[in-house]
Amino acid sequence: MAALGWLHPRRRFATARSVLAGEASAEAARKTSQELSQELPPEPSPEPSQESAEAKKPEAPDFPVVGDDKAAAFFDLDNTVLQGAALFYFGRGLYKRKFFQRQELARFIWQQTWFRLAGEDPGHLADARESALSIVKGHRVAELISIGEAVYDDYLAERIWSGTRALAQAHLDAGQKVWLVTAAPVEMATIIARRLGLTGALGTVAESVHGVYTGKLVGEPLHGPAKAEAVRALAAAEGLDLARCAAYSDSHNDIPMLSLVGHPYAINPDAKLRKYARARDWRLRDYRTGRKAAKVGIPAAAGVGALAGGAAAAVALHRRRH
Model pTM greater than 0.70? Predict the structure, then answer.
């Protein structure tokens, strides 16, 4: 019955490793945000898909206050900004470059299918981390960043929810900073943030020595309570008032992060988050069609996202069985 553990999710609270992961992610995010601010303007948004009426005419949030430098917005990545799991597409990019064999690609595909059907289960997250970190150990950070750029062009650019992107743009237009918050490696997350014209990204931080991955994480993957700790640490460093900030996610695993801010949004929510959000009168947005949402099922596709956050591209996949 272990495979059905996702039906009865365990309550998780911040641990010392969660705090360490959050603080490391916030520090990495602040170091790269100034770099991102000097980059080229964001790429033009893709044309909205005919599959979603809401995506055609996304509702801009009514709360961003122009010039409010004490407010910011925090966006989960998988199934909130991106359709599907970034890790899956990154795995495809690594396979294309012969980082691993066909059977390992099949494992990535199985994990992506599981996330779509069952949501984010800690055991499966650990398996995904284990797979990825074993693959990138010994590779240079610069090499994985280069592959991450190609993965964005090949797979991710056409899979950005235009409705969610419009919400992020509303915050930017109001003069607020906008951050991705994901279990994906911070490097990959930073690539996505830069391509979308966002401020920066909070992600899983993988250890590297002299620019080479060691196969270890700093703390733990940026998932669940660790995301909330990262947002808390970044807000403290940036002098933000969390009561004036907004957060967006599809997954009930991100309730700790959503509960931190004064303006929580459930985007393409899984069943548990939808119920939780409705009970608290949180704003909801769903950019999927009814048919697509039904296919995603129990919780809507969320993802490990181990790709954009911390260390190059496989950070959030580190083996945590010890």
Answer: yes
Helix (H) or strand (E) holding 214: strand 212-217
Catalytic residue at 127?
A: no
Q: What contacts 224, CB < 8 A, 6 or more positions away?
A: 12, 18, 253, 254, 256
Contact 115, 317 (CB under 8 A): no
Active site residue 78: yes
Q: What is the pLDDT of residues 89-113, one digit of tens each?
A: 887 888 788 776 666 556 655 555 5
> DSSP states of 92-146 as a string?
HHHHHTTSS-HHHHHHHHHHHHHHHHH---HHHHHHHHHHHHHHHTTSBHHHHHH
Given the residues 78, 127, 250, 270, the one annotated as active site: 78
Give φ, ψ of 245 to 5 degrees: -95, 165
Q: What is the dihedral of CA 193, 69, 27, 246, to 10 degrees?
A: -60
Tell me, what DSSP letter sits at residue 38?
Answer: T
d(C-alpha 200, C-alpha 192), whole Å: 9
* Residue among 62, 69, 76, 281 flagged as catalytic: 76
**Ramachandran area for residue 114 (φ above 0: left; ψ -120 to 50: alpha; else beta):** alpha
**Residues 180 and 308: beta-carbon distance below 8 Å:** yes
SS (H, E, C) 179-191: EEEEEEEHHHHHH
